[in-house]
């Protein structure tokens, strides 16, 4: 039935169907299933991360030693309430899981 409608509308394929192809758009990190934090490979720079993750990396790298999530949250200008610290803890864990940071046994983070 659908083929018959198409054939009738296009005179058996001799006329354009008028169907417009979708326009391709560039997708940024986090769009369409793209990871916000890619797995780190040798030679990959911070430019592969979003600006917020880059800022977290700078805070960890600039610290005198291992940092806790509340230290990073404070440096980001966030309140030290669980609702503000826990998302930062998740971001730090994600960076560690993907090879950007090293997590110590006590839950602190160091640059690699």
Distance between the termini: 61 Å
Helix percentage range = 25-40%
Major sheet size, sense and barrel closure = 2 strands, antiparallel
Q: What ranges have pLDDT less than 50 throughout 5 or more consecutive residues?
A: none
User: Any idea what the shape is?
Assistant: elongated
Helix segment tally: 4
* Percent of sequence in beta strands: 5-15%
Secondary-structure element series? HHHHEE
**Strand order in the largest sheet:** 1-2
Explain what you see.
By secondary structure, this protein is mainly alpha-helical. The chain is built from four helices and two strands, in the order ααααββ. It has helices spanning 2-9, 51-62, 69-75, 82-97; strands at residues 101-103, 109-111. Strands 1-2 form a two-stranded antiparallel sheet. A hairpin with a 5-residue loop joins β1 (101-103) and β2. The radius of gyration is 24 Å and the shape is elongated.
Brief description of this entry?
By secondary structure, the protein is mainly alpha-helical. The protein has four helices and two strands; from the N terminus they run ααααββ.
């Amino acid at each position: 039935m659908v083929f018959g409608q198409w054939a009738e509308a296009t005179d058996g394929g001799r006329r354009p169907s008028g169907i417009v192809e979708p326009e391709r758009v560039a997708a940024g990190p986090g769009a369409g299933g793209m990871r916000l934090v890619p797995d780190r490979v040798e030679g990959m720079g911070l430019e592969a991360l979003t600006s917020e993750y880059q800022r977290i990396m700078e805070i960890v790298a600039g610290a005198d030693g291992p940092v806790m999530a509340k230290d990073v949250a404070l440096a980001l200008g966030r309140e030290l309430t669980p609702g503000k610290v826990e998302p930062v803890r998740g971001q730090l864990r994600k960076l560690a899981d993907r090879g950007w940071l090293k997590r110590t046994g006590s839950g602190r983070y160091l640059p690699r």
